[in-house]
Amino acid sequence: MSGFVLDTSSTLVLVLDDEPHSPVQALLDALGAGDPVVPPLWPYEVASGLESARKRGRLTPADVAMALGEIGRMRIEHDDRPADILHLTNLAAHLEITPYDAAYVSLATARGIPLATQDRRLARVGRAIGIDIIN
Question: pTM for this one?
Answer without folding.
Answer: 0.89
